[in-house]
Amino acid sequence: MGHFVNMSGYPSTVISYRNGQTDATLNQDKIVTVSTTVVCNPFLPIPLPVINVPGLNGPMSFTVTSESQMENPDHVQ
After folding, report:
1. Dihedral (C-alpha) 52, 58, 59, 64: value to the nearest 10 degrees?
2. Domain that holds residue 19
3. Is residue 34 domain-resident?
4. Each residue's pLDDT tens digit, 18-42
C-alpha cells in the first residue's frame, strides 16, 4: 500500500531519551522514544472550491511514535 502514497516531502524522525527507574545499585534506566511524521497527498484528490479537507483534497499528516527501554544505556547521547 505504501507504494501508492504520494508524499509531500521526506519523513521526519525525532529521537529523544528520558530517564527511567533507578535500581538499588543506582543504575538508571533510559527510555528511548522514536517519532516519525509523514505528510501525504490524497491518491485521487477531489476538487472542492471552498474548503480544504485533509485526505479528500488536501494533504494529511500521520505520526507514529514508539518508546522502549534501552538495553545498553551507556551510549545515550
Report:
1. 60
2. 2-68
3. yes
4. 988 888 888 888 899 999 999 998 8
